[in-house]
Design brief:
Blueprint: E1 2-12, E2 15-23, E3 32-33, E4 36-38, H1 45-57, E5 63-70, E6 82-89, E7 103-110, H2 121-136, H3 152-163, H4 169-179, E8 182-189, E9 196-201
Parallel strand pairs: 1-6
Antiparallel strand pairs: 1-2, 1-4, 2-3, 2-7, 5-6, 8-9
Length: about 210
């Protein structure tokens, strides 16, 4: 049997968080896992991942990419189930609704403070975090985690958060703006201090480039 499981990420409360569901049935009952399920006969893997993600979260659109195939014969006590893991990214956790009936509930968890996960989903979590951090350094994948309009400070905070280290702010700003992946918008965001310039990505799709 072939299954798909999706590690969904969003920035929530200033932290990188992932969405978990509490299993209602099966050998993992009562434990947390990433949303997923079996691929239907004749169904493409990407289509199955999007279907399961929609049924589990209500999401109709999200950045989605295939991560890795987990095929240890002992990963599921019910039989030899090969799982194709995916990573999904959204700009706001508020886009996620209540999961379908096959789950008890769903909840966001910080990636550094996950509960004990069913099956081999802890391996999936580690693999997905590593992929996201790595891809941040050679692509514009940050577009999938940010709203359409953002300040440069918010852009910088995202990079610092995901890379787990402070950035040289002046050099980072100069280098990013020189790449031409961002465009400054004609309007600003008003706040308690001076208005902040707003930016958006030139392309709302994945682009490979030497970011850092």
């Amino acid at each position: 049997m072939v299954a798909v499981d999706t590690v969904l990420f969003a920035i929530k409360d200033g932290r990188l968080q992932t969405f978990l569901v509490e299993l209602r049935r099966g050998p993992g009952r009562g434990r947390w896992a990433f949303p997923g399920g079996l691929v239907r006969v004749g169904e493409l893997l990407d289509s199955a991942a999007r279907r399961e993600l929609h049924e589990s979260t209500g999401l109709n659109s999200a950045y989605l990419e295939q991560l890795f195939t987990f095929g240890d014969p002992s990963r599921d006590p019910r039989g030899h189930v090969v799982s194709v893991a995916y990573m999904a990214l959204i700009p706001s956790s508020q886009q996620v609704g209540a999961p379908c009936d096959k789950y008890e509930t769903g909840r966001w968890y910080e990636v550094g403070d996950l509960p004990q996960l069913a099956y081999d989903h802890s391996l999936m979590a580690a693999y997905a975090v590593k992929r996201l951090k790595s891809k941040l350094e050679y692509s514009n994948i940050a577009y999938a985690l940010l709203p359409r309009e953002f300040t440069f400070a918010e852009f910088e905070e995202l990079y610092s958060l995901l890379l787990g280290r402070p950035l040289d702010r002046r050099n980072f700003r100069r280098r990013i703006l020189a790449m031409g992946i961002l465009k400054q918008l004609p309007h600003t965001r008003r706040g308690p201090h001076r208005p902040a310039a707003l930016y958006s990505f030139e392309q709302q799709s994945l682009r490979f480039i030497e970011m850092l």
